[in-house]
Task: structure prediction
Amino acid sequence: MQIRYFVALSLLPYTAMAIDTPVPGQCVIQPPVPVPSVTAIQGQSDDLTHALIYISSDSSDATMGQMASFQGDVRVTQGNRLIQADQAIFNQQQEQLDANGNLIFQDSLFTVTADSLVAKMRQNSAVLSGANYWLHGQQVHGSAQELEITPDNNLLMTQTNFTTCPPENLTWILEADKIKIDSDDEWGEIWDAKVKLLGVPVFYVPYMTVPVSDKRKSGLLFPSISTSTTNGLEITTPYYWNIAPEYDLTFTPHLMTNRGLFLQTEFRYLAGEAQQGQINLGYLGKDRYLENDPTRYLYHWQHRGAIDENWRVLANYTDVSDNNYFNDLPSDVNQATDNQLNRIGELSYFQRNWDASVRVQDIKVLGAENEEPYKVLPQISANYRLPDFWNNLDFAFSTELTNFEHDDVTQPQATRWHMEPTLTLPIYVPAGSLTTELKLFQTNYWQRDISAGDGLEDSVSRTIPQARIHGQINFERQTQIWGENYRQTLEPQAQYLYVGYEDQSAIGLYDTAALADDFYGLFRDRRYSSIDRIANANQVTIGATTRLFDSHNLEQLKFSLGQIFYFEDNKVDLNPEFEEEAPSFSVLASELDAHLYKNWYFSGAIQFDTKEGETKKSEFSLDFRPGANKLVQVNYRYVPDLLNTNTNDRVDISQTGLRTTWPLSDDLYFVGNWYYDLNRERTVETFAGLQYESCCWAVRLSYHYNIKTNYADDFNPIENYREEFEKGVYLNFVIKGLGGSGPLGVSDMLDEGLFNYRKPLYLRN
Result:
C-alpha cells in the first residue's frame, strides 16, 4: 500500500530556465526517461514557496518530529513540480530532504535526472549531483557534475555542458566550468567555456552571456566575415547596448581592408506607448579605395506614431556624403538600387468625416545633378467626406495650400492653392456597378522668380470641370475545359471621361510627372501624377476581365484586355517644346495570370501600339513550383525609351533572367539567379548559394557577381575610375543556441541581389 504525507513547507524555489528560444519545425529532443504527467493541485496557491508538499511511497518509517524514511516509488509533489526516487529521507529537525535512486526532478520548464538530491527547506535551496537536464519544448539539453538551485531562485551548474543537437549526433557542444542562470535578469553567465565542433575544440571564451528569454541585455553580438573585390576582407563585430527599457543602441565596427574602419550606429527609442523611432549613423574617416581618401558619412532619423486617438506624426530624414554611398557601403537605411532620399515631416489630425495635415518634403536625387525636385515648404491639406448625404449621393471636398521652393535661385518658385469638390453617385448591385462622378478643379498659382521660366506668369487662376461615368457588368457561367468543370466570369467595363481644356503653359512644373501605362491605368481619371498639368480628355475606355475558378472555387486564370479611344487630341503636355503625336487610341494593354498545368504558372503584361505595330512595354515570367522550396523561374522584361539619369540618354531595357531554388537533400539546398542584358550582350547579375541546415547548426556559402550602380560625384569625376562590376564570396556559419537560429531559409536568399524574386501569380484563392 502507499503511505501519503503532506508537509506545509517549501521544497524547491521556482526557477525559469531557458537557454535559447525554440526553432519551429526543427529537432524535437525529449528526455530519454518516462516522465509522469504533473498537474497543479486545484485550489493551490501559485506561490510555490507557500504550497503544500505531498509525499507518497510504497512503504515508510517515521519518528514524529525527527525523521521520516520512504522506500519504493517515492513521489514528492509541490504544485506543478515532482521529485521521483527509489528512496528518500526527510529530516524534520534540519528541514532537509535527501533522495536517490532513479532520481527524476521535473517542473513545467525542465526535467532533470540525477544520482542524488539534497533539498534544504530552511535555505529554500536544492543540490542535484550527477545531473542531466532537458528543457521542455526546446532543443537545449546537457549535463552537470552538480546542479544547484539557489535561495534566490537562480540556477548554478558546475563542470557542465549544453547543446541543441540530438544526443546521438552532437555536432557541437559547449563545455564550461560554471554556468549561472539568473531568474530575475533572465540571462545566463558562462565561465571558461570552449565550443567543440565534431569533438574538436574550435574556440575558447573566458566569459560570455546568453539569453534565456526575450529579455534584452548588453553585450557583443556574433561577428560576420566576407570578402569582395572592392571592399576586400570584411569583418564586423556588433555590440548591443540595452540602455533602458525604452532605449537601445547597436554599435558596429566594420573593418574593410581596402577601405578602412567603417563605423555604424543604430539608436532605437520608444516615445510613450504609440510612438517609436530610430537614428542611424555611418562614418568612414578615410576611404582608401577612392582618390584623396575622402570622408564618407550617413545620418538618418525616422519617427512615427500616434500622439492620441486623433493626432499622427511622421518624420523621415536621410543624408549622405556622396552619391555612391549606398553603392559602396552596407546600410540598413537604403539599398544600392535606391537613388532617392525622401525627407518628410508630417503632422495629421483625423476625425470621422474629415482630416487635415501639415507636411514638409524634400527629395534628394542621387547621381542626377540636373534633376533637383522642388521642396514642399510646407503643404497644408484638408479632406472632407459626406457619404450618402442625399438620395445615395456622396460629397467630398479636398483642398491643399502648397509652397514650392528650390535650391537653385534661378528656378521659379510658387505657392499653389487647389480646391477639388466632388459629387459621386455610386450604384452597386450583384450584377455590376455604375458610378457617376462630377469634379471641379480650381487652382490658383502665385509664382516668383519667373524670369527663368519661358512664358510663366506671376498669377494664374485655372478652373477645369471633369465628368466621369464608369460601369461594369458581371457575367458568369459553368463550363468544361479538358474534361474539368470550371466557373467562368466575364467582367466587361467601360468608362467615359471628359476633362475640360485650359492653356496651362503659364504654370511651372513643380511636382508633376507622367504616370505609367498598364491595364488598370486605362481607367484612371488623370494622365499625370499631380495637378500642375491636368490633361484635357474626351475619351472612352473599354476593357474586360475574365476569370476561371475550379471546383474548389480557386482562381486558376485571370486575363484582362483594354484600350482607350480618344474623341479629341490631348493639348496638354509636360514638355511644351515637344509636339506630341495625337493618336486616336491608346496602346492595347493586357495582363495574364494563369495556373497552366499542375506545377506550372505564367504571368505576363504587355502594352502594344496597334497603330505602329510595336511593343511599348512587356514583362513575362514562367514558374515551375512542384513543392516547398522548389522553384525554377524564367523571366523577361522589355522597356523602351527609358531615361538614363547618368547620361540623360534614352535607352532600351531588354533583359532575361533565370532564378531557381532546389533542395539537393533534406538539409542541403541550392539558390541561384542569373540576369542577362540582351542589348549589351552581357551578364548583369549572378548569384549562387548553397545552404546546409540541421536542427543545431547551419552554414551558407554564396557567390555574388553584379553590376554596380555608379554615379559621378566629387570623389570620382572620372567615370571609368570605378569598378563596373563587383563580385564576392560570403560564408555564414551559425551555431543554434548561441545567439541565433540560423539563416531564414530560401526566402531571404531569393531576395538577395539587385533583382528580388516576385511570385508571379496573384490569383485570388
In short: The chain is about 0% helix and 60% strand.
